[in-house]
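Support request, please re-run this one:
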Amino acid sequence: MKKFFIYFACVSFFVNYAQDHPKLVVGIVVDQMKMEYLYRFQNDFSETGFKRLLNGGYTFHNMHYNYMPTYTAPGHASIYTGTTPSVHGIVGNEWFSRRLGKEMYCTDDDSVSTLGDGKDKEGRMSPKNLQSTTITDELRMATNFKGKVIGISIKDRGAILPAGHFANWAFWYSKTGAFISSTFYNSALPNWVTEFNQEQRFMPYINKGWDLFKPLATYDESLPDDNPYEGKLYNSAAPVFPYNLKDMYEKNDAGIIRSTPFGNNLLADFAMKAIEKEELGKDEITDFLAVSFSSTDYIGHLLGPRSMELQDTYLRLDQTISDFLIYLDKTIGKGNYLVFRTADHAGAENVTFLKDHKLNVRSVEPKEIRKALKSFQLILLERI
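Re-run finished. Output below.
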């Protein structure tokens, strides 16, 4: 059995319970990771992170999502159900419901309550809007509900949708700095989650701040540190290193860590704690841990695919994945676990950047699209 399985769109799943099976399956989604990053940053990756996945498993190159829009929620739902939004029902991160007469969020569920220290409606979430079963659901049924399934992410939708309907738990990050859940899964958080939250694991990352992970010369695959195609991180004076995260935290809340590479580190810390405390992979019945790294998406949207910040995030994530795989080697054992790595969607180049390099493109505002659709509607009505 090959240990690693990498894919970049929805493909046939891999658990065949009638054959030799892993003790633990770890599904890794890297939010907004374009496949080109594997090769663009390859010279700067270690041999034990992304390269270990590439060299030790299977890579599928000619894959795509056959629907639009490719947002986070439909991407995660499609990966784990093996079908498309027209079937699984998650057509966007949010959409207008004609039945309810209002906009709804993909994992909204007012019938449940928040577990843990969450703000507002952060924990009133469940997979009830997902209309198909997931590979994790099928695993639960195939093992007569003895195999454990846990989904974790910085984003609620990145944890809930992969974990499916029958999950033991899904945990996601709150602006308070705590991992939370909902009463859909149980009546109280496990003690180990409460203890993890009390340790405020996010604070060391905030106190240290964000500077370059490697020497400046390493970042020659990116644009200069301060370029016109970037946004600003939490109203920083300029998009340049180093970033004073402590100052940003004091002016905002613990949610700022989501837009730094350390959101990925914090999630990996939590994943390893979940494996330990939930005893995943400790018997012959297959368990499943669904991990979705979200910070890559926040940083990609804010600072762009050509920013040094994004490259730094992937160089750090490479190390995080390396540490995680080494942890799996030690705790589950080589040959006893199966990993796949994919992305829920990619990310477009900055339109102004392309235009400045003489590509004949322009940014189309949503209001222009709405205006064109209304004009087209009027034309159709006149023809009736």
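The longest helix spans residues 308-331. Confidence is low (pLDDT under 50) at residues 1-19.
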